[in-house]
């Protein structure tokens, strides 16, 4: 699944939510030092930058957690943290312009950070994992429910984020299944 996410990142960075080109009359106006591509952009970061930041943060966090992995103290496996954090960071960065995206991203980051700042006993760990899976599922469904004009396959940032969310959800389900199976043994 990580390979699929990486391959999606290498696609051309076309997006349904991209920056519109200014009219020819506006191109000649002085934009105070801004380049023409981003002069009228309402987004503080373009999608390539958002994806690069999210990929770097999630990859470095994955590596750190993987090196320190101890099943007895970790609420989420390292790969779940990596996938979910990618989605959370993308939503936070894009959420600087959209409150709903910001709330979803902060929810994911908050659920991932909860075991770091507080002690979660095993009886509540399952509830936290279910909460993360439900939040990611809701974000996945909300993406397709929102109107994109049928351009889902041109939205690279959306595709990589949805792939990461599916990978995290499937990994959480597999983790729950193996945890339940090992407890029965």
Protein model, in words:
- This protein is an all-alpha fold.
- Helices cover 66% and strands 0% of the residues.
- It contains 7 helices and no strands.
- It has helices at residues 2-9, 24-27, 47-67, 78-94, 99-117, 122-145, 156-184.
- It is globular and about 45 Å long.
- 24% of the residues are buried.
- The model is unreliable at 2-8 and 10-39 (pLDDT under 50).
Topology (SSEs and partners):
Blueprint: H1 2-9, H2 24-27, H3 47-67, H4 78-94, H5 99-117, H6 122-145, H7 156-184
Helix pairs in contact: 1-7, 3-4, 4-5, 4-7, 5-6, 6-7
Note the run of SSEs as H and E.
HHHHHHH
Number of helices: 7
Extended strand count: 0
Whole-Å distance between the termini? 29 Å
> What's the main sheet like?
none
Arithmetic mean pLDDT: 77
- What percent strand? under 5%
Low-confidence runs of at least 5 consecutive residues: 2-8, 10-39
In which range does the helix fraction lie?
A: 55-70%
Class by alpha and beta content: mainly alpha
Given the C-alpha coordinates, what overall shape results? globular
What is the alpha-carbon Rg in Å? 19 Å
Which structural traits does this protein have?
globular, 7 helices, 185 residues, 66% helix
